[in-house]
Amino acid sequence: TRAPPREIVFDNSLLSTEPYPSDLPRVATPPRTLTLDKYPFPGVEDYEENPEYDQIPVIKQNAKSPSPPIGDGGAGLTPAQEVIHLRRQLAKLNRRVMALELENLNRLQKEKIVVGFGIAYFLL
């Protein structure tokens, strides 16, 4: 008779043959729809306000700040001005992406040349 390979015997010794071992708890499947009215759910008013956090200002500085909006954050712009502003931002973004793609292509070309020289050096 042929015995199964050692790897399979080892796996079978580690893995259980029962699909649901009796020592582990069974978990019910989640419901198809989630309803908040059946269970208590904390609202905004349930949280306590901590006055210490209100007194300490939190200042975060990003490495790249977003482009400043025109005027009052764009609140006083007409729809035509907003479209022009968004087109300008899109053009700037497009230029950045094109520059990154060009830089990536140049880097890949340089890497191909260096790898080629490296392989040629080790073969000769």
TrEMBL record:
Keywords, comma-separated and alphabetical: Coiled coil, Membrane, Mitochondrion, Mitochondrion outer membrane, Peroxisome, Transmembrane, Transmembrane helix
Cellular component terms per the entry's GO annotation: mitochondrial outer membrane; peroxisome
Places the protein is found: Mitochondrion outer membrane; Peroxisome
Domain spans labelled Mff-like: 73-124
Principal cellular location given in the protein's record: mitochondrion
Topology within the bilayer: Single-pass type IV membrane protein
Highest rank taxon of the organism: Eukaryota
Membrane spanning stretches: none
Assigned protein family: Belongs to the Tango11 family.
Protein name: Mff-like domain-containing protein
Phylogenetic classification of the source organism: Eukaryota, Metazoa, Ecdysozoa, Arthropoda, Hexapoda
